[in-house]
Amino acid sequence: MYALALATDYDETLADHGAVTPAALEAIRKLKDSGRKLILVTGRELPDLKRVFAEHEIFDRIVAENGALLYTPATRKSRQLAPPPPPKFVNRLRKRGVEPLYVGETIVATLVPNETIVLEEIRDLGLELEIIFNKGAVMVLPSGLNKATGLLAALEELELSPHNVVGIGDAENDHALLRTVGYGVAVANALPTVKETADRSTRAARGAGVAELVGLMLDKDAALMDTERQRVEVGADAAGAASVISPYGGCSLIAGTSGIGKSTLATLLTERFFKKGYQFCVLDPEGDYSHLENVVVVGDADAAPNLREILDLLEKPTNNVAVNMLGLKTDERPDYFARLLPELASLRARKGRPHWLVIDEAHHLLPSARVGNSFALPNELPATILVTVHPDLVSKDVLQKVEVVMALGPEAGAVFDSFSQTVGVDGPKGIVPLSEQQILFWDRASGRPAKAIEVDKPKQARKRHKRKYAEGDLGDSSFYFRGPDGAMRLKAQNLMMFLHIAEGVDDATWEHHLRAGDYSKWFGGKVKDKELAAEARAIEDNEQLAPDQSRAAIADAVRSRYTGTTG
């Protein structure tokens, strides 16, 4: 379930001339029984609403006074979201004969054409207030306060994202509401400008229109909400046509040879998720995403990520999480992920998020050597991005859920071949060579052919600070050659000093640190160079190398990445 809540206006939307019909009430009861939340967002004052709508307690939250007051019917507790109106302002309106005049806990309301007097008094008193129109009504509220801000306060209490909310309204004060929710609807009787703001309009008016929308939510759920403004652009072809991925779609695969830019593309997509307000979670076996902005990193090279901490963080819709698995041994990571995935699936079922799941090194976390049941895979993996060098080593059960393939580099054609052979489908034809800024994008779910698209670089670049690590002083992050008996303490405060000392230490000392994996740990954990760490780890694991050979191999790996590039 993705569409988890309905936010509805009251007058001339849910209500017909102030009253809710039995049919409309029955429709929202049915929606509530489906496990979804109901939020009423109205310009009315709360006592007035209670007077005209006795069944208001069916709602989980009521946003009254056009966003200024939040009420919880289950507890009968209300919370002001803004200060009360200035008494001097109210008194001057009364003295000038403004009638009718309604004064709530925050809102001041009247009818047209009194807006001229209201505006004069706001200006003369120098108040930070603004006027919001609701057809013939004139509502005065603190600047920046509206139905959208009130709805967001309600959603914060309910731990829901606006992306998982469908909203419906009819008048000027509903524009902000309809723009904020994941899917905005105007009833048939709505103002023309409101219909322009909405993603769709109902055929029926008022309460019958709400009942119509409820039927669509129950029947289509996420499919109802798949609109252009919710999709995420990956890039565009030479003609400017955008290629997109959808939060309501299935898996996407990013694949290509090592070092070709897969994590760079994944980083770009996380930036776009954040910009659109989507919550995302990155499963990061090698610590490649700990640099991401706007994320909370759980785990590091010294500590395995705590499952409860991850889930607690994701309970809040505004938290994005990168799960750093460096603290786990390579062969422990698939089992850890097998425990985490059902928890994420459960959170998605309850809260509709994280909206996007990025799984790096997917061939390690979802290897083909394991059967699908061992992953406790959900029937679908919506909005999941798999990043891998080896599509053929990813579980076939998982690959069959892939709807979009993004291939990078000169071996892009081989990526499509590997994927197609693994899942038993025909791959795209006519693969063309790519430029450095291009990827091949194949939306196989749509049946359209693959095409080359231009892709931007992410704004946040990975910063290795080469001069610092090559020639600076790393202080507490320095490497110490101690030897097998711990009798030595030779400090290498940077990479160049590390190479200098490495040339002079005895074979026993060199081999002691090599077999303990100390070099790769230092490169990855302190130098923050995961690629160098991976190269070193391969050398450490090669027991056929003599000490002078492993020394030379480590030195070559360091120099190839840092010598000549530090100036």
From TrEMBL:
It comes from Aminobacter aminovorans (Chelatobacter heintzii). One of its GO terms (molecular function) is magnesium ion binding. Gene3D superfamilies: 3.90.1070.10, HAD superfamily/HAD-like, P-loop containing nucleotide triphosphate hydrolases. Transmembrane segments: none annotated. This is AAA+ ATPase domain-containing protein. Signal peptide: none annotated. SUPFAM superfamilies: HAD-like, P-loop containing nucleoside triphosphate hydrolases. SMART domains: AAA. Residues 248-410 form the AAA+ ATPase domain. One of its GO terms (cellular component) is cytosol. The lineage of its organism: Bacteria, Pseudomonadati, Pseudomonadota, Alphaproteobacteria, Hyphomicrobiales. Keywords: Plasmid. The keyword Hydrolase does not apply. Pfam families: DUF87, Hydrolase_3.
